[in-house]
Amino acid sequence: MGYCPCFRSKKKGINLKTKLSNNYVPIEGAPTTPIKSDLDNAVKYSTLLEPRQQVPISKHSSPSESNLPTFSYRDLAVATSNFRRESIIGEGGFGPVFKGQLESGQVVAVKKLNHSGLQGDKEFFVEVHMLSLLRHPNLVNLIGYCIEGNQRILIYEFMPLGSLEYHLHDMTPDMEPLDWDTRMIIASGAAKGLDYLHSQADRPVIYRDLKSANILLSEGFHPKLSDFGLAKFGPGADNTHVSTRVMGTHGYCAPEYAGTGKLTMKSDIYSFGVLLLELITGCRAMDDTREHGKEMLVDWGRPMLKDRKNYVQLADPKLRGKFPQSVFRRAVDLALMCVQDDPHARPHTKDIVLALSYFASQKHDSPSAQSNQIGSQRDGRIFQGEEQGNASPVDFNRAGIAVKEMRASSKDQERERAVVEAKKWGETWRDKRKPNVEDDFDYRSRW
């Protein structure tokens, strides 16, 4: 799988201060005349944004929600102490991200375009346009933007816990590793955000850059998808894909997209499968220190994925074997479904949301989970004991059946709730009718 020549490689986390240079424009030299103070004019005169991206795409959007406030460069310089180095909390392909405080007192994250970086005006306008229309609890909230001179700055809500990448791969000695329950909550929330983009927008959106660095965490490890500069509208009714230059991050890119440039919703599903494997294994999606041919997480894990008995060898040692064994196996099955080479065989986001909602509800410290906690260790990895009986080779159909079973179980629970509610309603209605004997008789005869 030695493909993907056009990927961004810079990390985005909250611990990259040492990689940045302090070369920001001082406030005295800030531009004073905006090129276009209104985003609509900027989009209208820009040849970098596709015309079809100028239409509303969210069922829940309104004119007021789509009009984001603009900020002056001076306001943002004051908010970030003149974009000083000490305010930097991360960096991505767009540029450095600063922590700041607006005049209102609101703490924000300020992302400033690095003109010598990997992104530019096109990504800026796409990001503003997308996030001005899309609203969901699992998408980061864009507060406003700045267009003055050659400055391109985005202002987001501040996410105090940083990125998922930081908690998985860049932990400091004083940090506690993410436990299994938290990982499933994060995966479930990310899946809901992706399902919103794919299924709930008037015009479906392909995220195209799903990775742990782009999942930001608020209080309680609530996940939100961020960085929509590479997002694309899904194909129209007469098309099966969007043809585009290959962009993304090495290790997350679907093979059919990397090989042909044909982008579909299922490209995002592949990326989500890699993300889920990251959460399960604690390993990076791309790691050049692994042996040749296994730099990508999917390739590294394939030998252990051939037989279900080997699944537990994938478990992140930092989990210390504390996870429900049956749920762990199903989570691996789901990840395998997502990273299948055949994009048509990958699941829909709705099925992923259903499965992960179930996984997140199965806490590792529940009585049923505790019965599976059999600690053992091999090759430095701590994991749970094997289930009794012979495990069959990995079978994607079995994983699909597991999702169907969860869907059926969910429907059965809904049906049971409906029956109980109907009985309660009937009893209440009957009690209200009892004072009138004749009416009560008529009511019972009708039933």
- Evaluate the radius of gyration: 25 Å
CATH architecture of the domain at 162-361: Orthogonal Bundle
User: What is the succession of H and E elements?
Assistant: HHHEEEHEEHHEEEEEHEHHHHHEEHH
* Distance between the first and last residues' Cα: 66 Å
Give me the count of strands: 13
Question: Which descriptors would you attach to this protein?
Answer:
447 residues; alpha+beta; Phosphorylase Kinase, domain 1; Transferase(Phosphotransferase), domain 1; 5-stranded antiparallel β-sheet; two-stranded antiparallel ribbon; disordered N terminus
Give the SSE map.
Elements: H1 39-45, H2 63-66, H3 73-79, E1 88-91, E2 96-101, E3 107-112, H4 121-133, E4 142-148, E5 151-157, H5 164-169, H6 180-200, E6 205-206, E7 215-218, E8 222-225, E9 232-233, E10 242-243, H7 255-260, E11 262-263, H8 265-281, H9 297-305, H10 325-338, H11 349-361, H12 367-370, E12 375-378, E13 381-384, H13 396-433, H14 437-446
Helix pairs in contact: 6-8, 6-11, 8-10, 10-11, 10-13, 11-13
Produce a short descriptive summary.
By secondary structure, the chain is an alpha+beta fold. 38% of the residues lie in helices and 12% in strands. Among the domains are: 73-157, Phosphorylase Kinase, domain 1, CATH 3.30.200.20; 162-361, Transferase(Phosphotransferase) domain 1 (Transferase(Phosphotransferase), domain 1, Orthogonal Bundle), CATH 1.10.510.10.
